Request: fold
Amino acid sequence: MPKHFLLFILIGLTITFSHAQTDSVSVIYDNSEIVRKEISPADLESYKNNPDFDYEVVKQDAPTWWVSFKNWMSNLVMRFFEWLFGIEKASGAFNTFLEILPYLLLVALLFILIKFFININTNSVISKSNTPLVSLSEEEHIIKNTDIEQLIKQALANNDYRLAIRYYYLYILQLMTEKDIIKWELQKTNEDYLKEIQEAGLKENFNTITRHYNYIWYGDFPIDHTKYNKAEASFLALKKIIANA
Reply:
């Protein structure tokens, strides 16, 4: 009897739960009347004039030259990779890489150009700062009024071989002026002095020291003690010829 009673209760609960589930999912239909909303042209005009409802996005067109350059670069890169890997069309991360590659190349090119011009300017400034300057007015004063041999000794004491060569050349011009071999003038060039020299041996030796002088002084040709001694030998030989002229 208790077993039958428990079974009866279990069946009753099952029927009640099933009925509750059926009721909970029943559809409720909306039978209310639908009223059509009329929008007048005046209403539309008010929305058009309201900036809060302006969703139009104006896209700025890139300059024509930039678009052409970017397309050309992209096509060039694409053809290169098609040839290299035998691919028809890139996708995914590789496609993204190809899209940004022209920009990377452009940045690299600008970096190289900027670095190139910076190096040129830097070297120019360093060269100018390291050049021992002798102005034209100083040159005239040295040749006419100065003991140039003493200036040569001072330059050698400071291991400034370039400046010593400079003074040696002015010393030769001074000696030839005193011997009336040339007529020194501020505006004259070394070629002018060569034309004034009549004696062939003297002209040849002067041409040799002029070449040394141009290389070392104007050409920033590196010179050490050994190279200076070789150049000095040419100056001393010419000095001897001038003394016997």
About this structure: The CA atoms of residues 33 and 241 lie 129 Å apart. DSSP finds ten helices and no strands in the chain. Residues 20-24, 125-134 have pLDDT under 50 and may be disordered. The chain has two domains: 64-129, 136-243.
